[in-house]
Amino acid sequence: MSTTAKATARAGSNIAFIKYWGVADASLNLPLNNSISMTLGDLYTTTTVEWDPDSPLNADTLQIDGAAATGSKAERVSRHLDRVAQLAGIDRPPARVASHNNFPMASGIASSASAFAALSVAAAAALGLHLDTRALSALARKGSGSASRSLFGGYVEWERGCDDASSIAHPLQPADHWALIDLVAVVSTAEKTVSSASGHTLAHTSPLNTARIASLDRALAQVRSALATRNLAELGPAIEQDALAMHAVMMTSSPSLLYWQPATLAILQAVRRWRANEGLPVYFTIDAGPNVHLICEPAAAAAVSSRLQQLDGVQAVLSSGPGAGTTLIQEALF
Ligand code: DP6
């Protein structure tokens, strides 16, 4: 490489309806189970990568949301850049990476999903490495499991697979198939004390893990069918059940992971009250954090959002519909 090469990609975060929780192979990020998610069009990460053989520092540099990032975050990005260079079969030069999230990081809104999807696409393009979406999905998965799904737009399933090439995501339905809304009730923006990456290695220590995994073929089929027929009354109970099952596994792992805050539980109870007393069609799901994602159709979104904002402990409400998969864009961050 004689000249610098730069590319910028944008990737939406995603919210899982059937969760990825637990690894079968931690080095390749092969999951214990298939998962299904909606790619979020309005909560996204933009990442610019420049491979720079003439870098005076002779080391990678990483900026996240305008601030220099070091330590384990920077090392995780550098390891991912190593994977991209390895695929290209080159001895890699240092890279300059800048990343911007339009939502708060590390608060249960999956920033690692959009971050590693955008990083994979930008880093490969900047090297002139042409990978199809299957290869990009496998690459993104090794950075962050859920990133394998953010490669694609709309509603997406990640096949557990059995090796590096087969553990990849594919689209189930396009974004314009169903305008679901994800209203994210932000209860805390603090960085989580246990990352999903270490949590995934604990799942097997819970006595409930085997029971959850055994129930998933049915739950996955229910979610696929509800998505195909745009049936919220079929989708909602399946996503609530799996979010609670995943948190039951987390709570009963050794050591135990307890992500909920008092406001988390208050929101779950409020959602059930709004459904039972007012017939408001809204369902919840929760990732590895205290924030609650409320899933509804556009007709109910204003009523859900205004009720949420009146609950104690809700600091903000973010909103997103389904969006496109990861794409290269022209506007670079530097
Ligand atoms: C609870 O793939 O984000 O959000 O990148 O290692 O932190 P790390 O893991 P990640 O785990 C996602 C866990 C989840 C469920 C899901 O998105 O499927």
Structural notes for this entry:
The protein is an alpha+beta fold. It is 37% helix and 24% strand. It has helices at 71-88, 111-126, 133-143, 147-150, 196-200, 209-228, 232-251, 262-278, 298-309; strands at 5-18, 23-25, 30-31, 35-51, 61-64, 67-68, 95-101, 155-158, 169-173, 181-186, 282-285, 292-296, 316-320, 327-329. Strands 1, 4, 5, 6, 7, 8, 9 and 14 form an eight-stranded mixed β-sheet that branches. Strands 11-12-10-13 form a four-stranded antiparallel β-sheet. β11 (282-285) and β12 form a beta hairpin. α1 (71-88) crosses α2. The two termini are 20 Å apart. It binds ligand DP6.
As a whole number of angstroms, the C-alpha radius of gyration is 19 Å
Put simply, the count of helices is 9
Order of helices and strands: EEEEEEHEHHHEEEHHHHEEHEE
CATH topology of the largest domain: Ribosomal Protein S5, domain 2
Low-confidence regions: none
Q: How many β-strand runs?
A: 14
Number of domains: 2
Per CATH, the class of the largest domain reads Alpha Beta
Helix content: 25-40%
Strand content: 15-25%
CATH architecture of the largest domain: 2-Layer Sandwich
Bound molecules: ligand DP6
Mean pLDDT: 94
Broad structural category: alpha+beta
Reported for the largest beta sheet, the result is: 8 strands, mixed
- Roughly how many Å apart are the termini? 20 Å
Note the overall shape.
Answer: globular
